[in-house]
Amino acid sequence: MVTADPVTPNLLPPGPVAQAPGAILDWYAAHQRDLPWRRPQATPWAVLVSEIMLQQTPVARVLPVYAAWLARWPTPASLAASPAGDAVRAWGRLGYPRRAIRLHATAQALVERHGGEVPASADALRALPGIGSYTAAAVASFAFGQRHVVLDTNVRRVLARLVSGRELPSPSMSAAERRLAESLLPEQPAVAARWSVAVMELGALVCTAVRPRCASCPVAASCAWRRAGHPAGGGPRRSQKYAGTDRQCRGRLLAVLRDCAGPVPGSQLEAAWADQLQRSRALDGLVADGLVDPLPDGRFALPGTHPIPGTPAPPAKPALRARPALPAKPALPAKPALPAKH
Ligand code: SF4
Description:
Blueprint: E1 2-3, H1 20-31, H2 44-54, H3 59-72, H4 76-80, H5 84-91, H6 98-114, H7 122-126, H8 133-144, H9 153-162, E2 173-174, H10 175-184, H11 189-205, H12 224-227, H13 246-259, H14 266-270, H15 276-288, E3 293-294, E4 300-301
Parallel strand pairs: 1-2
Antiparallel strand pairs: 3-4
Bound molecules: iron/sulfur cluster.
């Protein structure tokens, strides 16, 4: 959420930082990782899947699940035709499994509203279930080469240090922060898209949350935080405790269901977590989130994987409209000419 700020300062300071886009783009051309969702052949659907999986999950853990997911469901229609429980099972241990349910719902909405294609419009993307402003901007930028401000954790950290001289951005995004990002965004859409991914990569590889590698940074000379002597800003926020939480309990229960081919009795879930009160609370939460189906005979199943007597059959899948021709993925120049203002 963007919070309002009372003043509207000119946040792009004059001087060397205005050269940052060129320096970071050059660095990216030389140092970018070869990640499957960045390759030219990555479809908009593949980009969307990667964006959902990468939320709160490191690249190394996403890579194998992403590859298996797209091998099994190369299009939204193929995922929409599977039970939601298959998506939960394939999500494995990526964490925050509600993302699997949301991705399944997104696939169904793409079939119903967009003929099985990912729309290029950020507004149409934002209207899909589970797609927020960040993901819509990221998919429109990275899949369709459009000009949007894409502010993830890495980008926010880099800009906070480089321009604002602070170790970390504020917990909630401000309108001023968006204006700063907008002011640095190159004008040409394809260059802007490349700039966004380049800053992300700099944040992931060099300007890391802990022990940034300033000696290897392409914008070290103009970095406000470095020039100020790296003043402490409270340090990285501590990660949340996991052991013993309801979240861990949910993960254990869901793992039992994922690891079984069919429904499981309650006694099998009891063996996975000893605390009865916490287990009941976690199970209720999983059911409420649509991640688990309680069956009339007392067993539990992944959603949509086991028929429930007395419940209406799922609606027939909508017929796909004729597939519109996909727009060609814009070529991203290796060393783009930047607008004069940068
Ligand atoms: S000089 Fe250091 S702190 Fe500044 S942007 Fe580069 S890596 Fe980050």
